[in-house]
């Protein structure tokens, strides 16, 4: 059972009431095996509406358990409860769970570890230890107030005050060093670090001083192992790495800080640390831990080299003979100040309100019923199915964009997919306002990332770059700043599935859309009726 409740949490010298699960921060780690069925009862004792999303779980025919507010369910109201029921099928590695309602996931999150079935083993030597490393982002203010203020003013929200490792900021922040996370290790041991970027609004670099990291998994799929000195995780991504204790037996910092691809945009430039402590290192007057060197904040070259190192361990069945070839622009925009708004509500650039969109549609969630219920019960007027499969206006997406193209339309538009469709989506970043690396997450699916690049996607030139042999399988793709990525999947899971930027500030502004995947033939290709305890709207 998960109880959502307010809990006093002291960080950076100040105590705040924060929304937590079971009073724990980060929330409890769920440890399961491939093939397990889960029932998690969520009881809401907080003052906010809440839902829980099981990030990366395929949810085959269990769309009612996916969790995004007003997409697959109405929120669990204060005093209410809901039981999420779903099965882990064919996934092994690290996922995570988090609130999917307003900005509650700033503190409502935890690891979801999926081990192999009983009697099966990892495709790499069994590590001596396993440690979840959950990277987070902390505001010295109520995150709900931060987003509400931004929604009121139309400006960008205040940046965070700290990053955290397992909810602790670490030695480089005030009032924090006595609680710094410590990871003990014996010389010669191998530790499987399950690194999760649970930060609300920031891609992060991660490194451990003097130690190499061997990447073996990501987003609960195995990866052909490769060795690196630094990771970059887009918001929502997970990466499993092996670290061997083969250095002098002292103390080493593991550290994370921002990868900031948007130029001239304020960001939190602090560094969170934890300590990798060899058990034989001297206690007491031990020297300060050794600090890793992290890339420069805007080091896109390191990010590109890292992301292009990902491969599936062997040849995979990439969907070919595509019958849905889609092209989605993703990026920011500006809404002109509505005539009835005071100037204080239009504090974006030049008296506007900041916005974001996919194919120029800024996504609006319904407010009185969820999309999945409206679809299943045939309720009209909640959404339309005219989300454009290509940009309504073609332009130089990553060039100097005319100001006339900055204003998106708002709508609750879905894109319909027939069951079994073989889908390709080109995700094309734009240079509107601030080009940025966008972590795009698709609910209910994993997808193959078959290529990425910079500038405008050009099918004549770029199709030759497609990796149709061993591309990585992910649930979240970091689309390069001022660039593009191409993903493929088979629409084999009926329901309504959100696709959105995992920087919560951007989803707040509308950088999202949803696929409506129709039922196929028979019970095994259809969405069942909703559970009886689905929250009332």
Automatic annotation (TrEMBL):
Coiled coil ranges (UniProt) are none
Q: What is its EC number?
A: 1.10.3.2
Q: What does this protein do?
A: Lignin degradation and detoxification of lignin-derived products.
What is the superkingdom listed in this entry's lineage? Eukaryota
* Protein's name according to its UniProt entry: Laccase
Cofactor(s) annotated in UniProt = Cu cation
- Per the record, what are the reactions this protein catalyses? 4 hydroquinone + O2 = 4 benzosemiquinone + 2 H2O
Family matches, as NCBIfam families: laccase
Family the entry assigns? Belongs to the multicopper oxidase family.
Listed A to Z, the keywords are: Apoplast, Copper, Glycoprotein, Lignin degradation, Metal-binding, Oxidoreductase, Repeat, Secreted
Q: What class of enzyme is it?
A: oxidoreductase
What region holds the Plastocyanin-like domain? 4-117, 131-280, 387-519
Keyword Ligase attached: no
Compartments where found: Secreted, Extracellular space, Apoplast
Cofactor: record remark? Binds 4 Cu cations per monomer.
InterPro entries with a match to the protein in the record:
Cu-oxidase-like_N (IPR011707), Cu-oxidase_2nd (IPR001117), Cu-oxidase_C (IPR011706), Cu-oxidase_fam (IPR045087), Cu_oxidase_CS (IPR033138), Cu_oxidase_Cu_BS (IPR002355), Cupredoxin (IPR008972), CuRO_1_LCC (IPR034288)
Keyword presence, Secreted: yes
User: Which SUPFAM superfamilies is this protein grouped with?
Assistant: Cupredoxins
């Amino acid at each position: 059972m998960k109880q959502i409740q307010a809990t006093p949490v002291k960080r950076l010298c100040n105590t705040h009431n924060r929304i937590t699960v079971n009073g724990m921060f980060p929330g409890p780690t769920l440890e399961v095996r491939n093939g397990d069925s889960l029932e998690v009862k969520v009881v809401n004792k907080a003052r906010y509406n809440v839902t829980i999303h099981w990030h990366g779980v395929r949810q085959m025919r269990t769309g009612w358990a996916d969790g995004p507010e007003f997409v697959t369910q109405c929120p669990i109201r204060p005093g209410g409860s809901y039981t999420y029921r779903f099965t882990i099928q064919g996934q092994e590695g690290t996922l995570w769970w988090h609130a999917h309602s307003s900005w509650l996931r700033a503190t409502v999150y935890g690891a979801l570890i999926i081990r192999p079935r009983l009697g099966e083993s990892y495709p790499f030597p069994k590590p001596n230890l396993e440690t979840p490393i959950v990277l987070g982002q902390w505001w010295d203010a109520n995150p709900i107030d931060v987003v509400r203020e931004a929604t009121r003013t139309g400006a960008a929200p205040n940046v965070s005050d700290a990053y955290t490792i397992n909810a602790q900021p670490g030695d480089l922040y005030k009032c924090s060093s006595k609680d710094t996370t410590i990871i003990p290790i014996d010389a010669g041991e191998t530790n499987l670090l399950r690194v999760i970027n649970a930060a609300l609004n920031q891609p992060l670099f991660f490194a451990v001083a003097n130690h190499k990291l061997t990447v073996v998994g990501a987003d609960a799929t195995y990866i052909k192992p490769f060795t690196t000195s630094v990771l970059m995780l887009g918001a929502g991504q997970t990466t499993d790495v092996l670290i061997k204790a083969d250095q002098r037996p002292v103390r080493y910092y593991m550290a994370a800080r921002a990868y900031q691809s948007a130029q001239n945009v304020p960001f939190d430039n602090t560094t969170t640390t934890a300590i990798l402590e060899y058990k034989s290192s001297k206690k007491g007057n031990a020297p300060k831990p050794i600090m890793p060197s992290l890339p420069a904040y805007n080091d896109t070259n390191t990010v590109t080299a890292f992301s292009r190192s990902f491969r599936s361990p062997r040849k995979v069945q990439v969907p070919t003979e595509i019958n849905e070839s889609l092209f989605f622009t993703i990026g920011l925009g500006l809404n002109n100040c509505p005539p009835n708004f005071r100037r204080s509500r239009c504090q974006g650039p030049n008296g506007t309100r900041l916005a974001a969109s996919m194919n120029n549609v800024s996504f609006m969630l319904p407010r009185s019923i969820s999309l999945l219920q409206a679809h299943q019960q045939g309720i009209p007027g909640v959404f339309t199915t005219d989300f454009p499969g290509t940009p309504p206006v073609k332009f130089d997406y990553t060039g100097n964009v005319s100001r006339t193209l900055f204003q998106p339309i708002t709508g609750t538009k879905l894109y319909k997919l027939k069951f079994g469709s073989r889908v390709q989506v080109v995700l094309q970043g734009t240079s509107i306002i601030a080009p940025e690396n966008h972590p795009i997450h698709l609910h209910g699916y994993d997808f193959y990332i078959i290529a990425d690049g910079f500038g405008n996607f050009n099918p004549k030139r770029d199709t030759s770059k497609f990796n149709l042999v061993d591309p990585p399988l992910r649930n979240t793709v970091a689309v390069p700043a001022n660039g593009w990525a191409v993903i493929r999947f088979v629409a084999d899971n009926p329901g309504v599935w959100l696709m959105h930027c995992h920087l919560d500030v951007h989803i707040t502004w509308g950088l999202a859309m949803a696929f409506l995947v129709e039922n196929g033939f028979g019970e095994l290709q259809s969405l069942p009726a909703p559970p009886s305890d689905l929250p009332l709207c």
